[in-house]
Each structure stands twice: as C-alpha cells, then as structure tokens.
Design a protein that fits this description.
Elements (H helix, E strand, L loop, with lengths): L12 H6 L8 E3 L5 E8 L2 E8 H10 L3 E9 L3 E9 L7 E2 L4 E9 L15 E2 L12 E7 L2 E7 L9
Length: 162
C-alpha cells in the first residue's frame, strides 16, 4: 500500500511498519554550531542527515526541490559520490521535506577500466540482493562556492568534518 506524507510524496510499506513514514523527519537536533542533524527512515534503515547552515540557507532560497542522489559505484574499484539534481531532474526514493529528496542508486559499468574511474563512464543500475547492507547510514550536505557538496558513509558515524 502506497502511503503519502504531508508533502504528497510516496512512502513504502516497510516504513509503515517502523512507524516513521520515509521522508518524514523523525528527529531534528542542532548537531553543532555549523550544522543541523535530521534523522529519517530510509530503505528500512536509520539515516542521519547532517546539513550545514550554509546548505540550509541555499536550500531555502532555491525555490525548487533538490534531490541528493547517493551513488554507490561498483567496478574495479568502489566509488561513493553524491550527485545533486535540482528541480524534478531525477526521482527521489524518499522526501525529507518538500525541498529535499533522497535517492540511493547502486550502479556498475559493463567493463572495468581504471582510466575511466575519474571520468564519467556509462553506468547501469546494479540490482543488489540485500540492498539494506549497502544503504548509507549518514549523509553530509554542504553548499560552498556556489556548488552543492556531499558525502555519505556506510559506518554508523560520519568522520569529523574538515
């Protein structure tokens, strides 16, 4: 059964069981002087989102939704990156609020080429047998020099901010 949160975006059955609709904020705390922490249910796991105050201000002034896509890239090496898509340029798995959506996307390439690791080789979605094992536990979002920046991790705690 599809469930919709206050923003009208869909949820999942697994989130209904947890009592927290995906995309609805379970907890908001200050987190520190320079950032806010939000905790949400995301693909049957708890995800901590650390958003700097700069990013909060930029998001508030954006005027359209932003989707933070956490890409886990499988090839010769494993790469993690966050791709930001403004407007409705990409789907979101869950909406934190009406301005911020989240997506987890495991991808792979057809061929292993170390030379292509820095470039943009063509990728295809990579179906995971047990995706919960690979779903991020934390996401850090910042906005510096006119550009969105992000990182995510699979460990329980994020590394100290630089």
């Amino acid at each position: 059964m599809e469930r919709h949160d206050a923003t009208g975006h869909g949820g999942t059955k697994s989130a209904e069981k947890s009592g927290i609709a995906p995309g609805l904020i379970a907890d908001i705390s200050q987190g520190g002087k320079d950032h806010m922490t939000r905790t949400v249910r995301f693909h049957e796991r708890t995800l901590e989102i650390h958003i700097t105050k700069r990013a909060e201000r930029a998001l508030a002034g954006l005027g359209r939704p932003l989707v933070a896509e956490m890409e886990l890239y499988f090839s010769c090496l494993i790469r993690k990156r966050v791709v930001f898509r403004e407007g409705h340029a990409g789907p979101a798995d869950h909406w934190v609020d009406e301005a911020l959506g989240l997506r987890f996307r495991p991808v792979m390439t057809r061929n292993c080429s170390l030379g292509a690791a820095g470039g943009e080789p063509p990728v295809t979605d990579f179906p995971l047998v047990k995706p919960q094992r690979f779903v991020p536990r934390w996401l850090r979002i910042d906005y510096r020099g006119g550009a969105w920046q992000g990182e995510f991790g699979l460990s329980a705690q994020p590394a100290a901010a630089a």
